[in-house]
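Exercise: predict the fold of this chain.
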Amino acid sequence: MTIDEYAAWAATIAKVDEHPSNERLSYLGLGLAGESGEVAEHIKKLLRDDWLDKAGLVEELGDVIYYWACLCAATGQQPSELLAASAAKIKRRISEAASR
């Protein structure tokens, strides 16, 4: 399954259409923030306990991707295009930093 196929599937599960309500967008954004917080919690526990629950972290990363993919669909963006744009932005920043 490609990331674009996953986003289309996730959008059907989350009932995201072409014109999501503010409530739906808020729900998805809060879901993304909440799952990101759970990822951070695993990292915090790594620092505290010097042990990483990799399976738990991976599960939370999957939840982050779900909400991210739903938000992509809700805003009419293809995740693959967003990833390409992000990579280009990071490459520009690296190039600019190297030329200083």
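Check your answer against the key: The chain has a mean pLDDT of 96.
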